[in-house]
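Cross-check.
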Amino acid sequence: MLEQLQQTVKSIRSIEDFQPEIGVILGTGLGGLVDEMEIISAIPYEDIPHFPDSTVHGHPVGLFCPALVAGESLLCKGVFIIIRGYSPAELTFPIPGDENVGY
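Predicted model, tokenized:
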């Protein structure tokens, strides 16, 4: 799992080299916040290795870096839910617990 996380971090940083202090997962009803902000960078989940596939199809999902606090925050639009068959490890994969490996 650590190797997968390191590959994911490397991939994200090859697209955008940010190290946010705050991450916000935008669940049901909150995804519209991304549409109301100036976004300076966006990475679709499908472009991130080892990320689960969001079960919300037809809507843009991914990691978004808003201009308001550029480089300090990251918004995750699109959720992964256990009733779609994901394991707890898969559900929590995008949420690093080690500050030395975080995005």
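DSSP finds two helices and four strands in the chain. The radius of gyration is 13 Å. Passed to J.P. for a second look.
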